[in-house]
């Protein structure tokens, strides 16, 4: 990135929080002034804009205080900026937002269209490129590349670059056993927009999901059932499940949970939809995304909190 002549470049010699480091290095600057710098996106650690005052600096880090206002702030009710640098952008999306348009030329608001508008406010020639996707109703973390070359590289070597992908799902019933590995072969019927699972190799793509039940609730008592609008399947209760993907097939988690008899709550395609659901959404969330940064070759890790509504049926 082109550096303005009056930018201030500071080198970190020992571990410190960003706020304390800037106060010490910027001539006794007031905390309120440092917060303003951070809020205006005028502080970078390495190549990444940093807005957290408690960000942990390590020896060897470079902190740059920009002379002018930093990048335009991303503001959208369904999308939160988690991380950005000169190469990548990581965001957290809410349910109900497509990653990319469902049909070419569509004017529907998507993560891609929001980010395109965002980067063009910074630079009219800037582009943004999809690395991977989440279903419309799945919330959580997504990474985008700032160049077509980087997009191609990350897609080609995605399985080698990603060191952890963790999802959280609220499912119907209780998985048995409570921890294990699901391996099936998935075949996608694009005409009917559905994925079929086979326990044996039938020519489909192998899909591997590791799961662990974090918490379960028993079904309601007979008295509670009598006064509850939720009948049938929901008498089995719910389970909060942590899932680690070894492969990233279309609808993999949803199909695998349904194959175990415990579909994701709110899943209209492979489960019961909202028929028995106390929550008006698909209860699937991309919680952790960890990968090797393709440019710096450093491991980066991002985590998104579990949606609070997932916990309500477990209380």
Characterize the structure shown:
Helix content is 17%, strand content 32%. The protein is globular and about 65 Å long. With 315 residues, the protein is α+β, with helices and mostly antiparallel strands. The longest helix is centred in the middle third of the chain and has 12 residues, at 111-122. It has seven helices and 17 strands. It has three domains: 8-65, Structural Genomics Hypothetical 15.5 Kd Protein In mrcA-pckA Intergenic Region, Chain A (Roll), CATH 3.10.290; 79-156, Pseudouridine synthase, CATH 3.30.2350.10; 160-314, Pseudouridine synthase, CATH 3.30.2350.10.
Q: Topology, please?
A:
Blueprint: E1 8-11, E2 16-17, H1 18-25, H2 31-39, E3 43-45, E4 48-49, E5 56-57, E6 62-65, E7 79-84, E8 88-93, H3 111-122, E9 129-130, E10 139-145, H4 148-156, H5 158-161, E11 162-172, E12 179-189, E13 194-198, E14 205-217, H6 222-226, E15 238-245, H7 252-259, E16 284-292, E17 299-303
Parallel strand pairs: 10-16
Antiparallel strand pairs: 1-6, 2-5, 3-4, 3-6, 7-8, 8-10, 9-10, 11-15, 11-16, 12-13, 12-14, 14-15, 16-17
Write out key terms for the chains shown.
315 residues; alpha+beta; Structural Genomics Hypothetical 15.5 Kd Protein In mrcA-pckA Intergenic Region, Chain A; Pseudouridine synthase; 4-stranded antiparallel sheet; 32% strand; globular
Summary?
It is built from 7 helices and 17 strands.
Percent range for β-strand residues: 25-35%
- Computed Rg: 22 Å
Q: Quick one: CATH class of the largest domain?
A: Alpha Beta
Instruction: Please name the fourth-level CATH homologous superfamily of the largest domain.
Output: Pseudouridine synthase
Going by CATH, the architecture of the largest domain would be: 2-Layer Sandwich
How many domain modules? Answer: 3
Mean pLDDT: 87
Share of helix among residues? 10-25%
Low-confidence stretches: 1-5, 221-228
CA-CA gap between termini: 50 Å
Mind summarizing the main beta sheet?
Answer: 11 strands, mixed
Enter the CATH topology name of the largest domain. Pseudouridine synthase
Oligomer: single chain
Q: Order of helices and strands, N to C?
A: EEHHEEEEEEHEEHHEEEEHEHEE
How many strands in all? 17
Q: Can you count the helices? A: 7
Shape: globular
């Amino acid at each position: 990135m082109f550096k303005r002549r009056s930018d201030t470049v500071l080198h970190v010699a020992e571990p410190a929080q960003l706020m304390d480091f800037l106060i010490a290095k910027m001539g006794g600057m007031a905390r309120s002034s440092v917060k303003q710098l951070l809020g205006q996106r005028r502080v970078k650690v390495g190549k990444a804009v940093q807005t957290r005052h408690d960000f942990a600096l390590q020896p060897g880090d470079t902190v740059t205080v920009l002379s002018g206002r930093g990048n335009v702030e991303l503001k959208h009710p369904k999308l939160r900026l988690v991380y950005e640098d000169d190469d990548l952008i990581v965001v957290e999306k809410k349910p109900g937002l497509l990653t990319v348009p469902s049909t070419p030329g569509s004017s529907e608001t998507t993560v891609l269209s929001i980010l395109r508008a965002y980067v063009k406010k910074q630079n009219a020639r800037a582009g943004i490129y999809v690395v991977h996707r989440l279903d419309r109703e799945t919330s959580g973390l997504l990474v985008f590349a700032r160049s077509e070359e980087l997009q191609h590289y990350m897609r080609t070597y995605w399985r080698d670059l990603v060191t952890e992908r963790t999802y959280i799902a609220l499912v119907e019933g209780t998985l048995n056993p409570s921890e294990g590995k699901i391996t099936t072969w998935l075949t996608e019927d694009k005409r009917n927009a559905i994925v079929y699972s086979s326990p044996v190799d039938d020519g489909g793509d192998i899909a591997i999901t590791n799961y662990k039940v974090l918490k379960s609730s028993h079904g309601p008592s007979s008295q509670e059932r009598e006064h509850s609008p939720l009948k049938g399947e929901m008498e089995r209760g719910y389970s909060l499940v942590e899932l680690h993907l070894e492969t990233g097939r279309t609808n993999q988690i949803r199909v695998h949970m349904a194959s175990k008899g415990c579909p994701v709550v709110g899943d209209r395609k492979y489960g019961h939809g909202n028929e028995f659901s106390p929550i008006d959404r698909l209860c699937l969330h991309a919680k952790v995304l960890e990968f090797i940064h393709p440019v710096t070759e450093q491991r980066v890790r991002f985590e998104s909190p579990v949606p609070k509504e997932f916990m309500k049926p477990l209380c």
